[in-house]
Amino acid sequence: MIRSLLYIWALILFISALGSCSKASEDMLMTVQQCDTSGMKYNADILPIITTNCYSCHANGIVNGNVSLDGYANLKTQADNGNLVGVITHASGYPPMPDNGGKLSDCEINKIKAWIVAGAKQD
Ligand code: HEC
Questions:
Q1: pLDDT greater than 70 at residue 25
Q2: Which one of 84, 86, 99, 106 is most buried, by most CB atoms within 10 A?
Q3: Which domain holds residue 15?
């Protein structure tokens, strides 16, 4: 009887330890992956990423690869034809962008993807 009580006690301890452990790793994941991709807006969320990383080669009269990313309409074209996701994710068959050996952060890529999935709207 005491023996089985001990087993149950050990089991409870084990389960609660598991619980607190997974809770701790959840918290860690939350801090590592703080990337809010909800309600992405062209002006507030997407444009700053493109301006910083792409405009030097694809805007203001500079049209590398015959691609301009100036303003909403041009970016929308590249979003709709699939080139935008292809180049930023370094998918095979697309020239990897930015074309200076870098890559956008996972968070930036996920934001752009989320914006496209939601219709690549201008708002
Ligand atoms: C350092 C200059 C440079 C930067 C920065 C740059 N690009 Fe490019 N981009 C190029 C060049 C050069 C080409 C043509 C490459 C080719 O056709 O092989 C190109 C081509 C493209 C194309 C056409 C792809 C195709 O399939 O024809 C797209 C779309 C594009 N870039 C998007 C972007 C985006 C989005 C960014 C920012 C994340 C970016 N580029 C940053 C130089 C750059």
A1: no
A2: 84
A3: 1-34
